Each structure stands twice: as C-alpha cells, then as structure tokens.
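Researcher: First entry.
Model:
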Amino acid sequence: QVQLVESGGRLVQAGDSLRLSCAASGRTFSRFAMGWFRQAPGKEREFVSGIGWSGGITYYADSVKGRFTISKDNGENTVYLQMNTLKPEDTALYYCAARGVLGGSTYYTRSADYAYWGQGTQVTVSS
C-alpha cells in the first residue's frame, strides 16, 4: 500500500507561482511512476503531468506545457509540481497519483493507469 499526501495549494493571484508537493510512504517510492491531475468544480478530473519512475521522462497537458514542471526526488519520496504564470483557469483541486512499475520508465496519462491517489490540495488563482 502507498499513502500519498499533497501540500502547497493556496490562494494566489494570476501570474504567481506555486510549488505543490506529494509525499509518499508505504513502499519503495523509486519504482513508482507518478502523475498530477486536477479537477475544477463541475468538470471532470483531467491529467496535468506525468513522470516516469526514474524521473528522466516527463509529459504535460497542452494547457500547462511551458508553465508547469514536474520532478521526482526518490531519496525524499516526494514528487513536485512547480507551477509558474498561474491563470484563473488553473483553479482546481490537484491530486497526485502513483503507479507501481516493474520495468521501463514511461509516464502515464489516464486516471485508470494509477492505483494510488492522494486527497488533493486546493489551488485557487484569482484574476
């Protein structure tokens, strides 16, 4: 079992930056591909970014490409999402997710690909 706890969400103004953290515990973190998703009120949960288990490969939704950066610290059992130039449309509950991998170093973009989820951290961007 893996437990994920997100932190770092808060109210910010458009153009500001935030860094979200997701601390993992329970199993060897290094063999997990990780992802960030978000869900705005009245909308479906959507993929934001994914990273392979080694941290060497990353992928971003078009809506955040060039503004957000995902990273993974296997020594600290933590995955980060650096969010720059935030926009009001980035307002959402942000979740991190984990998937155990046996080999390869790919990322995953579908909710169904992930077995473990955190409770979410709220990001609100005012205009």
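Researcher: Second entry.
Model:
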Amino acid sequence: QVQLVESGGGLVQAGGSLRLSCAASGRAISSGATGWFRQAPGKEREFVAAISWTGLARYYADSVIGRFTISGDIAKNTAYLQMNSLKPEDTAVYYCAAKIGGLDRSSPTTGDFDSWGQGTQVTVSS
C-alpha cells in the first residue's frame, strides 16, 4: 500500500479558494490513479475528483465541475485539488485515495481505491 498525507485544508469564506495536497510515499502515484473524496457530518463519503495518471484522464463530480481541478506532480509524488469558488456546501473532511491501475468508470466509488489518507478539514463560511 501507499501512504497518503493530506494538507491544505482550512477555513475560507464563500467564493474563496484552497489547494489541497496529497503527498504519497511507498509507491509511485503514477502507477495508477488518485482520487479525492469528501465526507460531511452525517453523510456518506462521496466522490469529488479523480485522475488516472496513464493518459491523464480526469473525472469530476457534477457538483464541482468548473470549480475544482485535480492535478499532480509526479516528480514530487504529490496530487493536488485546486478548489475555487467555494460554497458552504463544500464543507467536509476531504480524503485522498490511491489505487494501482487505471479507472474503469467516470464516477469511482470508495471501493475502487486501496489506500486512504487521514483527511483534511475544509470549512467554508457563508
């Protein structure tokens, strides 16, 4: 398994931006795919964005299209989630996930990934 550490969360006003980072160790993220999920209090963990490093195919949840961008730096073994135009409903704990191999669907589920970070809190105030 790969070890993942998220950072970059915090408190931001609606309309603001944050960039989350996911630093990986133990395995190259380029060996497969990386995803971001989020979980708000009382809700299930939901898909946000994912990237398959072979071919660089990117996938997004409908709720974040046009506002969030997933990217990465292979040399640093780090993935990013740039979040712009944040809304209060984006408030959640954000988790980074990784898997070996590519993605076979445009809306991955938690079961598609074998490694998870501890999460970073994002709070958007109105």
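Model: Note on the second entry: The longest strand covers residues 92-100.
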